[in-house]
Amino acid sequence: MIQENKNLREAAVEKLSFHLKNPGYFSILVLGESGTGKKYIIDQLLFEIIKEEKYGFYNAFEIGETECEIEKIFSKDIILIKNIEELSEKQQNILFKFLSTGSDGEIGLGENKGLKRIIFTSTY
Q1: Which contiguous run of DSSP H or E holds residue 122?
Q2: Mean pLDDT throughout 90-100?
Q3: What integer pLDDT is reported at residue 111 of this predicted model?
Q4: pLDDT tens string 50-70
Q5: How far is Cα 32 from Cα 51, in angstroms, rounded to an integer?
């Protein structure tokens, strides 16, 4: 049982690493029970890939409930939003607006519009 869990974890980390290293810009959803190390693994992989911590990390309750507050998180090229299941309906609607791509494939609004990678985590 322990070996099986270790193999599953290693396979999940390998798959996540592949998607983080892929040059495409797309959102990633990382699922796992609370306390399994989702953010820790993402931190480690991103540090390997970009060699420094140039991404924004936010808990769902920290990102605010207005367009102005949520726009601030789009100043980074890589954005991690932890526990998306805790986003309010209002936050979800605003995020959806920011994540909707234009004909140029870029997301965001105003000065923070560009090619972004969004990583979400959830316990569900």
Answers
A1: strand 117-122
A2: 84
A3: 64
A4: 665 567 888 888 888 888 888
A5: 25
Give me 83's structure tokens: 């526990």
Q: Which residues 6+ apart lie within 8 Å of 120 measured at CB?
A: 27, 28, 29, 30, 80, 81, 84
Please write down the long-range contacts of 102-110, taking CB distance under 8 Å and 24 or more positions apart: 105/25, 107/74, 108/71, 108/74, 109/67, 109/71, 109/74, 110/71
Which residue in this structure is represented by tokens 């931190």?
43
Determine the 3-state secondary structure of 57 from DSSP.
Answer: strand
- Using CA atoms, how far apart are residues 117 and 114, in angstroms rounded to an integer? 10
Which DSSP symbol is given to 106? -
Amino acid occupying residue 9: R
* pTM beyond 0.90: no
Spatial neighbors of 49 by CB under 8 A, at least 6 apart, are 20, 21
Longest CA span, the chain? 51
Q: How far apart are CA 112 and CA 117, in angstroms?
A: 13
Measured distance CA(56)–CA(46) in Å, rounded: 11
Residue 17 Cα distances to 20, 69, 82, 83, 89, angstroms: 5, 30, 18, 20, 30
